[in-house]
Amino acid sequence: MGDDHDWAGFGEAVDALVATDFTARGVCAPLYAAARERTGEPLVLAAATRLRERVRPGDPVLICTGWPCATWLLSDLTETDGPVGAAHLARALEECLGAVPVLVTAPALVPVAAAALRGAGLVVADLDVAARSKSGPRRAAVAGAIGFTTDAARAGDDAAGLLDRLRPAAVIGIEVPGANQAGDYHDATASRIPSELVVKADALVRAAAERGSLTIGIGDGGNELGMGSIAEAVRRHLPDGEIVAPATEVDTLIVGCVSNWAAVALSAAISALAGRPDFLAGVDLRRIIDQACDAGAIDGPTSYIDAKSDGTPLAANLGLVALLETAVRAHSTGWRMA
């Protein structure tokens, strides 16, 4: 990062945008404070800086996502919150850092993940093809296309196999359930999520950390993968937090009001550090959301197939992108944004 840019100020501005509790859930502020105390710097900028330091052109980056909609007990339903942000971040990682993004989700959720990637402008290729794509046409792969397990008994072996195959520079979780100490999954109200619906991303993150890969978690309610980094705050501030608190820690945790917002903010920070203030203008968030909805993704709070993120309307999400683009341009080129 160059000394001629106020990156600290940029980090504070971006965090303020995505961590303010617009949805009035009441947990964002204390969870953000706990993550900020642990990190000691703005969360989004910290994650972007670490990715820029660790990811080289051609490096795979795994992005775990997909929140199963357990209320309906249907294995092929997921919220828009998660896959949309994951696809946007995949585009940033590919275009700004030259990475090979690989979305990891439950096999039943692959169609939504693939549709979101296409909405972000990426070609969805077979995993082996994507892993070889160190040059030439840009490609993204969905690891679930080859079936990342939802079976806890297979999780360790499957994680080792996928990591042996790809050797990712980083593994990121975006709005994906995090298991508690007993291995159970819960929503923010402590209702249990059937384990057989959940991709076993915890095992993948833990195994990746042991091998030295960077690990990042993004969540908004305290029950997501990576919130083990601030488990005490989850226990203290969530009703039934003792039951909900995830166990898995990550190197860097981002807490946002909406997970998609935090993921798009991470894209913005990556583009800023890469000297690409034009990046956000070239990615159509509306198209990503529409493609995910057309593939069957639903808005979590309402259960409608609707172009929202965690209940927030499309206009608010597009407005967030406009504000992030303003922040990137201002801090990259100066306040006159010439």
UniProtKB/TrEMBL annotation:
It comes from the Bacteria. It holds the Pfam family GLUCM-like_C. Residues 15-323 form the D-glutamate cyclase-like C-terminal domain. This is DUF4392 domain-containing protein. It comes from Pseudonocardia eucalypti. The lineage of its organism: Bacteria, Bacillati, Actinomycetota, Actinomycetes, Pseudonocardiales.
